[in-house]
């Protein structure tokens, strides 16, 4: 249900807040406060998740290909037997493949580590209330660039980073203000 449908049910299209609240409750309508920065559309989340999954699948395929190449070369070495020229050529290919495999594996692990860190930073940023999407993006970008340590999904020094960021960018965060206590009218004497 959307807000327009609620107002369509109202007389003359006008509602008091209490009437609006009552109609929304009856209709099981749920509305998100987007100013908190905590809402991420399901489609955006799913598309990011799909992109990361494809990236991981591609990297896994690369590793599998390298493993297959190494096994094939190992078999060729065994088949070469004592032919010195063939052995030398295959040994060279093997060393080249092994170097490429080690390089690809290191890049793969680094990429997974970076993705895990970026995900943790985004999750941490989602726990904060920002005044705008731009403030949230800047905070996230700077935190990613700071390359803090990640330990079991927790970012070490995240709160210190937030404190320092808040000091430099005071208007980036929504300040929680306590509701003022209403003044009681004085009794006439």
Helix count from the secondary structure assignment: 6
The end-to-end span amounts to: 54 Å
* Gyration radius from CA atoms, angstroms: 29 Å
Major β-sheet profile: 2 strands, antiparallel
SSE class: mainly alpha
Roughly how much helix do the residues carry, as a percent range? 55-70%
Low-confidence stretches: none
Strand line-up across the major sheet: 1-2
Q: What's the shape?
A: elongated
Proportion of residues in β-strands: under 5%
**Rounded average pLDDT:** 81
Instruction: Note the run of SSEs as H and E.
Output: HHHHHEEH
The strand count comes to 2
Q: Multimeric state of these chains?
A: single chain
What can you tell me about this protein's structure?
With 189 residues, the protein is mostly helical. It has 6 helices and 2 strands. The longest helix has 43 residues. The mean pLDDT is 81.
Question: Quick gist of this model?
Answer:
The chain has helices spanning 3-8, 17-26, 42-80, 84-126, 133-146, 158-168, and strands at residues 150-151, 154-155. It is an all-alpha fold and 189 residues long. Helix 3 packs antiparallel against helix 4 and helix 4 (84-126) crosses helix 5 (133-146).
């Amino acid at each position: 249900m959307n807000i327009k449908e609620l107002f369509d049910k109202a007389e003359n299209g006008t509602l008091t807040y209490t009437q609006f609240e009552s109609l929304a409750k009856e209709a099981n309508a749920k509305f998100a406060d987007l100013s908190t920065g905590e809402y991420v559309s399901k489609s955006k989340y799913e598309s990011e998740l799909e992109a990361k999954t494809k990236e991981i699948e591609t990297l896994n395929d690369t590793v599998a290909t390298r493993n297959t190449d190494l096994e094939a070369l190992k078999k060729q070495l065994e088949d070469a037997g004592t032919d010195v020229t063939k052995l030398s050529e295959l040994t060279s290919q093997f060393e080249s493949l092994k170097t490429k495999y080690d390089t690809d594996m290191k890049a793969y692990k680094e990429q997974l580590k970076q993705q895990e860190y970026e995900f943790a930073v985004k999750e941490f940023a989602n726990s904060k209330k920002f005044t705008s999407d731009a403030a949230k993006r800047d905070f996230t970008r700077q935190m990613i660039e700071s390359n803090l340590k990640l330990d079991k999904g927790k970012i070490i020094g995240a709160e210190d980073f937030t404190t320092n960021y808040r000091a430099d960018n005071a208007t980036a965060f929504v300040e929680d203000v306590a509701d003022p206590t209403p003044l009681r009218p004085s009794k006439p004497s």
